[in-house]
Design goal:
- By secondary structure, the protein is mainly α.
- 70% of the residues lie in helices and 6% in strands.
- The protein is built from 21 helices and 7 strands.
- The chain has a 5-stranded antiparallel β-sheet with strand order 4-3-2-1-5. A two-stranded antiparallel ribbon has the order 6-7.
- Strand 1 and strand 2 form a beta hairpin.
- Helix 7 crosses helix 8, helix 9 runs antiparallel to helix 10 and helix 14 runs antiparallel to helix 17.
- The N terminus and C terminus are likely disordered.
Length: 538
């Protein structure tokens, strides 16, 4: 008995919850049925406005079909349908649900006619529906569209939307869209002045574009107000542009830090001018490409993890190649910097040609995982996720490397060899193996830099060539072998480059930076942060 009562109560609850929606749908169908009795455009327009007044998103389908000329009345029973297809017969769809309702020959149906005036009414009605959508994102998109394409006909729907809106941020966007529509209407001058003040407070480039148009097409107080608002917006945007350049410079600095930090170790500890360092970066990028190819063909569900999988593999590949170069070539050339420069330059050419032979000379596609795609805005500052993650990654690599150098026995041995190689050897440190492992570490870090760079640059055999000169500039400017100097040097050069580019261009900007570094090292030959030690001082 209790079970039967429970079932009965459940059924009653379900019926009660369904009745309002069924009743609402029945009301919509009753309004749509009025299209069958509309004898002229004015009557049809009245039905359109009645549908729009319901604010129900279900009416979007019949209104859109009417605007496209696809709304029909079946002569046999005066029912209204959406019609699809050409020829002698038309497929009939339910105007609300879109479900198939059979077919009809063209002589058995009548198309509901529309003209340009009615199409404008339908467009406004559809805009009103999006302004009343349940999803705030849809309402925001509607407000943004109306702001960028202002129309005096939008004022009344926006007035209704403003009065009904409960979310403050969305309401502010509706008010701005209404102000934009006021500026292209015949409203009084006082209303336009208030609208200019509101749009001027918005302060973005869309507002600037709109006010520039108003300034051109207006006169008197409205023109003067628009001119003043444009001046204020330009001042605000100048500050945001400076902030954007700083962000671009920090972003470039993080890339330079990744490319140079491994070089700072090998150059500082071993005194080797490694011209093949850029090719270690290239090997890391191609390792990422191979990992993604395997994942695409065999494990597509793991694509978002591809970079995390590629990181240790890129480090291992580049470190092993670096170890082979040190053991096979560089260890015979210590103390002869010119010979190491030429030898590593030859190794770089060999590695480039080997990659061309295996993968071809063209760029390879390396995709962005979903968590590194897209961007977001902070005010007028645009920040891409891939650049932000590369910055975080670069700082993470720096922190780990700093810990290794300062807090581990191996790091202590490296610093001892850097300060005084002969004294370190006399204390039992195997300097040849320190050299080999240091070179492998620097090459491995370059490899994981390639993983990051594959997300923002073309993966090609020439990838490393574009970073080797900048890497040496960062190391020399910051101080050879000093990690903090490399950090400060990378971000300093990145920001200076981005501020020079708008005035001097990318190439000339790099030349100016190079000249400034040359002048700087004339005064401080050891860079910003010079290493200390008896052998170094000597």
């Amino acid at each position: 008995m209790i079970l039967i009562r429970a079932i009965g109560l459940t059924l009653l609850f379900l019926m009660a919850s369904l009745l309002p929606s069924n009743a609402a749908e029945a009301d919509l169908r009753a309004i749509i049925a009025k299209f069958a009795t509309a004898t002229n455009f004015s009557a049809t327009e009245a039905v359109v406005r009645e549908l729009a007044a319901t604010g129900d998103p279900l009416v979007e389908r019949p209104l859109a079909a009417l605007a496209d000329g696809d709304l029909y009345v079946r002569k046999a029973d005066s029912l209204v349908f959406v019609g699809k297809g050409g020829g002698d017969s038309v497929e009939l769809l339910d105007p609300l649900s879109g479900e198939k309702s059979g077919e009809a020959v063209k002589v058995g149906i009548t198309k509901i006619k529309v003209n340009n005036t009615l199409r404008r009414v339908i467009r406004d009605a559809l805009g009103t529906l999006t302004l009343r959508a349940k999803d705030p994102a849809v309402r925001i998109a509607a407000a943004d569209t109306m702001f960028k394409t202002p129309d005096a006909a939008n004022i009344e729907p926006l007035d209704a939307a403003v009065s009904n809106e409960t979310v403050a941020t969305v309401k502010a966007l509706f008010e701005q869209a209404r102000a934009a529509s006021v500026l292209v209407s015949d409203r009084p001058e006082a209303d336009k002045l208030a609208a200019i003040a509101l749009i001027g407070a918005r302060g973005d480039r869309d507002a600037l574009s709109l006010l520039t148009s108003v300034e051109t097409n207006s006169e008197g107080a409205v023109k003067d107000a628009a001119t003043a608002a444009i001046g204020n917006i330009n001042s605000t945007l100048a500050l945001w542009d400076a902030g954007q350049n700083i962000w671009y410079g920090i972003s470039l600095g993080s890339v330079l830090l990744l490319a140079a930090i491994g070089l700072a170790i090998t150059f500082g500890v071993m005194g080797v001018i490694n011209m093949a360092h850029g090719e270690m970066v290239m090997l890391g990028a191609y390792t990422t490409f191979v990992v993604q190819q395997v994942i695409r063909t065999s494990f597509p569900g793991l694509f978002d993890w591809s970079l995390l999988i590629a990181l240790p593999l890129a480090f291992l590949v580049a470190a092993l190649v670096g170890l082979a170069i040190e053991r096979g070539v560089i260890r015979f050339l210590y103390g002869r910097p010119l010979e190491t420069l030429l030898a590593t330059w030859g190794v770089s050419l060999i590695l480039q040609q080997a990659v061309r032979t295996i993968f071809g000379p063209t760029n390879q596609e390396v995709g962005n995982p979903s968590w590194m795609s897209g961007s977001f805005d902070i005010g007028q500052l645009a920040v891409t996720w891939n650049r932000l993650w590369i910055l975080v990654f670069a700082l993470g690599v720096f922190a780990v490397l700093l810990y290794v150098m300062k807090r581990t026995p191996w790091g202590l041995q490296m610093r001892a060899v850097t300060a005084n190689r002969r004294m370190a050897a006399s204390m039992g440190i195997r300097t040849p193996w320190v050299d080999a492992l240091t070179f492998a570490l620097g090459s491995g870090i370059a490899g994981i830099a390639g993983v990051a760079l594959s997300q923002i640059d073309n993966v090609s055999p020439n990838l490393g060539r574009g970073y080797i000169i900048d890497s040496f500039m960062v190391v020399v400017f910051g101080g050879v072998g000093n990690l903090w100097g490399t950090l400060v040097g990378a971000f300093s050069l990145g920001i200076v480059n981005k501020f020079l580019e708008p005035y001097a261009g990318a190439v000339l900007g790099k030349i100016v930076v190079l000249v400034l570094i040359i002048l700087f090292i004339q005064k401080r030959p050891r860079g910003l942060f010079a290493l200390k030690g008896r052998a170094i001082e000597a």
